[in-house]
Amino acid sequence: MIRVLLADDQALVRGALAAVLRIEPDLDVVAEVGNGTEVPAAAQRTAPDIALLDVQMPGRDGLTVAADLQRTLPGCRTIICTTFSRPGYLARAMSAGAAGYVVKDSPPEQLVDAIRRVHAGLRFVDPALAAEALASGASPLTEREADVLRAAADGGTVADIARTLRLSQGTVRNHLSSAIGKTRARTRAEAARLAEANGWL
């Protein structure tokens, strides 16, 4: 049996995923959680083979949780299952140690196939998203530019961003200017929106 932990903040989606997986004779859903902070304890308690994680959850996001599980429970492989069909999220998920990436509007058979492949030691990426990711390339933003854009997305002033990130205001302006240029935006708010839409933040 392949032991699966499900983490999704939407109870209806989580329940539907569990129902689909429980139909399969070789899959056993051993835990269902609705908050990213609940995943580590549930994983330690139930020792899943696969953790199926949503990207955006309360508490801690799925990408952070995937990286943590890789360190603390290396026998548990992770698959990101999300509505976000964005190349940037795919790249970040793979960097975090996820072995699979499935979009929620995929057919159920594709999710089941992904779980079996990942359990067998392979990787699985939604084919359409993989092609899009190859075409679009990696994020043009440096890690610090992404940090500054995340802070800018909240609408704070340069001084607010500088205080939050413990940078000088001049450094913040330089990073914002660079990020605006790389995203081909006109304003920092537009740059933040574009970066978020591409999954770079």
Automatic annotation (TrEMBL):
**Top-level taxon of origin:** Bacteria
**Record's keyword terms, sorted:** DNA-binding, Phosphoprotein
Q: Which GO terms describe its molecular function?
A: DNA binding
Per UniProt, residues of the Response regulatory domain are 3-119
The protein's matches in Pfam families, at most eight in alphabetical order, are given as: GerE, Response_reg
Residues annotated as domain HTH luxR-type? 134-199
Which residues are the signal sequence here?
Answer: none
Give the modified residues of type 4-aspartylphosphate: 54
The UniProt record lists the keyword Disulfide bond: no
Q: Record keywords: DNA-binding included?
A: yes
- What biological process terms from GO does the record include? phosphorelay signal transduction system; regulation of DNA-templated transcription
The cross-references to PANTHER family, in alphabetical order and at most eight, read: TRANSCRIPTIONAL REGULATORY PROTEIN DESR (PTHR43214:SF42), TWO-COMPONENT RESPONSE REGULATOR (PTHR43214)
Q: Mind telling me what this protein is named?
A: DNA-binding response regulator
Q: Upper lineage ranks? A: Bacteria, Bacillati, Actinomycetota, Actinomycetes, Kitasatosporales
